[in-house]
Amino acid sequence: MAHDYSYTKQKFKVIGTRPERPDGIDKVTGRAKYGADATAPGQLVGLILRSPHAHAIIKKIDTSKAEKLPGVKAVLTCADLPDLTGGNRDLQNILENCMARGRALYDGHAVAAVAAVDAQTAKKALKLIKVQYKALPHVTDVDEAILPGAPIIHDWVFTRGIDPAPTEPSNISQRTQFGHGDVEAGFAKADVIIEKTWKTEQTHQGYIEPHACLASVGPDGSGELWVTTQGHFTFRNVCSSLLGMDVAKLKVTASEIGGGFGGKTHVWMEPVALALSRKANRPVKVVMSREEVFRASGPTSSTSVDVKIGAKKNGVITAASAELRYQGGAFPGIWAMLGAMTSFACYDLKNVKTVGYDILCNRPKVTAYRAPSAPMAAFGVESTMDMLAAEIGMNPLEFRLKNAAKQGTRASYGPVYGPIGIKPTLNAVKNHPHMRARLGKNQGRGMACGFWFNFGGQTCVDLNVGIDGTVSLTVGTIDVGGSRAAISLIAAEELGIPYEQVKTNVADTASLGYNDMTEGSRGTFSTGMATIFAARNAIEVLRERAAKMWDIPVDAVVWENGEARATGKKHGNLPRLTIKQIAAKAGNTGGPIAGHNEVVADNAGVSFASHICDVEVDPETGATRVIRYTVVQDAGKAIHPDYVEGQFQGGAAQGIGWALNEEYIYGDDGRLQNPGFLDYRIPVCSDLPFIDTEILEIPNPNHPYGVRGVGETSIVPPLAAIGNAISNAVGVRMDHVPMSPPRILKALDDATSS
Amino acid sequence: MSAVLVSTTVNGDTVEFACPQDETLLDALRNRVGLTGVKEGCGTGDCGACSITLNGRLVCSCLVLGVEASGNSIETVEGMADGNKLHPLQEKFIEHAALQCGICTPGFLVAAKALLERKPNPTVEEIRYALAGNLCRCTGYDKIVRAVQAAAKEMRKKK
Q1: Contact B100 A481 (CB under 8 A)
Q2: Both ends of chain A: CA-CA distance in Å?
Q3: Domains in chain B: boundaries
Q4: Which of A12, A65, A335, A530 would disulfide-bridge A597, Cβ 3.0–4.6 Å?
Q5: Residues B49-55, mean pLDDT to the nearest whole number
Q6: Exposed e or buried b for every residue in A352-382, given b needs 16+ CB within 10 A?
Q7: Rounded distance between C-alpha atoms, residue A293 and residue A296, angstroms
Q8: The pLDDT value given to residue A1
Q9: What is the CATH number assigned to the segment(s) A458-600?
Q10: What is the rounded distance in angstroms from the CA atom of residue A480 to the CA atom of residue A474?
């Protein structure tokens, strides 16, 4: 049955309340099972040998000694993972990233693996594998990678998006361009133009749970994978393609997930674990160490971004352009493209042009990190906006309001906006008491805006009514941060039953139809939408069953407050039938009562946020402390406000870490120097203030409840908000993230000496 | 390297296990005692996900050898609830939505319990510094600090 996804001004009973999450007790008692918490009879320990070189030819791998070590059950190299991709370049890249094929492409690249009876034996076996490398020249810096003479990472990469197509291989894998109007004409009309280059260093999602899986494959080609993932259906498809298994014969179960933020949308060692298991014919558990997570999972890009914005003295922007260079690691990605799309999405611009360059380096393959690519572009654009406002003598908030996009604005990346929240968030900032709070010495306030698309995607939900009238909901997106609670609320709302009577379960891949990754802030948006439709389908069945029980036409039955009510003069006096009464009779009225829905949840509403940040800079040490922080963001409709606030706060905290501390530091040898939480310092509890939130609700017209994704946008503004606050505190404009003490001290020294 | 028979007390129960001499207490608790509520986030004492108390002292179990547990008393998250009655910290973490993914939660609960036993009425700053050895990447710590404040209040009422 086709359902209308349009927003209706439905009055809510339970949506917007804050009940306790159903998986809470499991998670506060230690009972919840995460990636590393599963065991299987006869399980082996799998470990991976990784390249110590940034770039090297693998001349020879001698595994003979490791194989002879008692207790070793399988040793694996790329020879055990033949290329079954049929020439699919994306899959080939995934395969080569899982296990090097003749060449190590970055420090930490997997080159071999073992499975042994225990960790001690597996560690010994790794040491017995002898690899002969021939080191090659490497490059790890995004700007150096495109200089003439830079080592070419892949001879098969020719820059796409250039006409005529180039004939020489390049480290630029793709050029993308967005915009409209005539930027040169626009700049000619400007009274003031600011043009500046901005750099950000590479950061990691920093989920506290390392990648972990338990793989079990038999000689019949059937297998199971227990894994911490944001997308078990995608993992199933990718792993079965790489290993030549039938999709239906690989059952993937998503464990509880200990954080993902995009980093668990990609397979890393899971295909290797399956291959080890197949070779050993035993279950194999592989758990990455923290060092492996940093060196060999998928951090986000380091970037170098040129921004140019011109405006009239009255504050109207006449043109804006950006050139964005994003480092994607050792394999082609779409990261600069996303940066080029999001750069100017907050503004209503007549003339705008962005060009993105995706650039290969000898670093791990980049993957998504919360609103991937948007924070770096926003750092450049939102910092430039403040500089330009200062130059024309306008309040930066008023300058943004004057140029903010609105309904009907043609976005810089193409589409025309429907109802959006950028102006409302700016107005909320303007009226927020935070903006009027007094500041002390060496303190400054900054603000910045952010945008993210959000995603919908393929979604499938089963809803089953039990014999007691309670409802079991089977979903295929995973619960990253309370979505079981939100989705249970939605089912309760539709069916008119209490929240406590719904239980939401995350199904394995054998128990439900395909679901896309839980990414793009889509969990509550898309699974919520499918849940609404599945519940409405179930209500149809419930009405039919009630009609049968009453022996009246179904048209005379309506569903209200969790009960069937007969209508009309003839039947109106029949006593109502509760869901429990109808469920109890299901066996006699047609069998199990269920509702199902599969949907491609298109038109996820775009999301905007504006943040306010106060910092205090210590001019002696260059250390910056965030002393107050406020997030204002449009949620469309907050289903469970606690977890919406949690997303706002968590994204802001990650952005603060990115802005002030976090960075991948590579040595001249191309090796990562800080692969641990001591030297890659994420914010700790004593670093941060309380993070205030204000949820705005501008309904998404393309969701029955008006829901927009809420998970990602909050990481976009902090880099620039903090840079702007530092500038207002101590008068130096920081153009390189992280704005760590040495960089701030240098900026202060440079300012004094000039 | 031969294993050593370790006899220890875990959450009030006597437990014995054979432990290789180079194995961490974290691995021993998870793989030999079956207490997988003790989490590994880093293995280097930087994240606090493996927090336990050893004779009442808060430690990272990844920095202790399994054999060091011999004759000592260990408390983990699995021992926090009193039968089917949750500890006030456990209740308040759920009530205040102080967990999102939940992987850091066991460590935070153990560390917060150690704090409140020492200091029943901590200031926000004291809470923040006491929990600075526990990393959370989801929440920004806001709701965690509020949950600890609420639990402290609750526990003071009961005394």
Answers
A1: yes
A2: 71
A3: 3-78, 88-158
A4: A530
A5: 98
A6: bbbbbbbbbbbbbbbbbbbbbbbbbbbbbbb
A7: 6
A8: 63
A9: 3.30.365.10
A10: 16
Scan residues 68-97 of B and list those with Cβ closer than 8 Å to A: 76-78, 80-81, 86, 90, 93-97
Query: Would an 8 Å CB–CB cutoff place B18 in contact with chain A?
Result: no
What's the 3-state SS for A656-688?
A: HHHHHCCCCCECCCCCECCCCCCCCCCCCHHHC
**DSSP character for B82?**
B
d(CA A688, CA B63): 27
Q: Which pLDDT score is estimated for A603?
A: 85
User: Is the predicted pLDDT of residue B1 greater than 70, yes or no?
Assistant: no
Residue A715 structure tokens: 């990481």
pLDDT value at residue A586: 98
- Residue A194, pLDDT score: 98
In this prediction, residues B87-104 reach a mean pLDDT of 98
Which of A204, A627, A684, A712 is the best mutation test for B, with the most CBs of B within 10 A? A684
**Architecture (CATH level 2) of domain A1-9+418-453+605-754:** 2-Layer Sandwich (3.30)
pLDDT at A572: 83
Burial A176-196 (b: 16+ CB within 10 A, else e): bebbebebeebbeebebebee
Would you call A428 helix, strand, or coil by DSSP?
helix
Mutation choice for A interface testing from B110, B141, B143, B144 by most A CBs within 10 A: B141
Contact residues, chain A, for B127 at CB < 8 Å: 685
- For residue B30, report the phi and psi dihedrals to the nearest 5 degrees: -75, -45
Q: Is the peptide bond before A592 cis (omega within 30 degrees of 0)?
A: no
Spatial distance between the Cα atoms of A461 and A694, rounded to a whole number of angstroms? 31
Domain regions of chain A by residue span? 1-9+418-453+605-754, 458-600
Name the burial class of residue A235, with classes exposed (0-12), middle (13-18) and buried (19+) by CB atoms within 10 angstroms of its CB: buried
CATH 3.10.20.30 fits B3-78, yes or no: yes
Give the CATH H-level superfamily of domain B88-158.
[2Fe-2S]-binding domain (1.10.150.120)
* Whole-model pTM over 0.90: yes
> Which residue among B80, B128, B144 places its CB closest to the CB of A686?
B128
CA nearest to B114, candidates B148, B145, B147: B148
Q: Which residues of chain A have pLDDT under 70?
A: 1
ipTM for the whole complex: 0.98
Q: What is the pLDDT of residue B2?
A: 82
Percent of chain B with pLDDT over 90: 97
